[in-house]
Amino acid sequence: MKVKLTDDEIVLYLSACTRPKVVECVAGATARIALRGDGVSGGAAKMITEAVAEAAASGLLIYRCSSIGSCGVCGKSAGYALRKRASRAGRKGSPMYDRPLYMSGVELRDSFVTMKGHVSIGGCKECVDAALPRIVDLVTAAELRWFPDHLDFDADVKREDHYACKKCEWSGRESYVGRSRAMMGNGTYPSTCPDCGAKNEPFGKRHISIVAGRHSVVKSGAVLREIDP
Ligand SMILES: [Zn+2]
Ligand SMILES: [Zn+2]
To answer: Are residues 135 and 160 in the same domain?
Structure first.
């Protein structure tokens, strides 16, 4: 027998259970209830908790644009192509159910298996983008790959260039590079290799330089994603 419980019932009846599957289920329900209390719709709460669980399980979330027939979060559907002229199958303007249309969606789970018109975790672009701040907030330790730059809504999120040292093998984020006082003004600039101590002098040899194209998106000191062209 299979019984479908609401999130509130799951928390009410199953909280005392210690079986791992049930504990996981109760945690998911608790998270969805908290999100709903925060004004997040049921569909969005489901997607967010799925994304957070996926991040915890696999350590990775991706942002991959993918066409979908309908959105499991808001219920919007791309519909079907309409008949341009009347035929035996239907009158002009009626939907052709063998010709589904697609709209822009986003897949968050990294998977080899994809189904056309369907995402495993995600939804339409609008729903996923609206939920991203909460997902980023709730994911504590996972790589977020290819997430869009509009994550910069959060002042805490910043972009860091990568630097490399010509004298030794070191390369890494700007926050690791030592800084020198600029000759003009009162700023500083990245100048010193954290590994071998080689230093760029104002008119001398340049040991430390930017690695073109490569950067990290960092939030509160933790790398959210690395961009490596
Ligand atoms: Zn949607
Ligand atoms: Zn060095």
So the answer is: no
Distance 77 CA to ligand 1 centre (A): 9
Cβ partners under 8 Å of residue 128, min gap 6 = 47, 63, 73, 105, 106, 108, 122
Ligand nearest to the CA of 195: 2
Residues 146 and 80 in one domain: yes
Q: Of the segments 78-82, 139-143, 220-224, which one has the largest average pLDDT value?
A: 78-82
Specify the pLDDT at position 152.
Answer: 43
For the stretch 63-86, pLDDT in tens is 888 889 999 999 999 999 899 988
Structural domain including 113 reads 59-152
Mean pLDDT of 184-210: 87
The Å distance, Cα 130 to ligand 1 centre, comes to 9
Q: How far is the CA of 192 from the centre of ligand 2 (A)?
A: 8
Distance from the alpha carbon of residue 190 to the mean position of ligand 2, in angstroms: 13
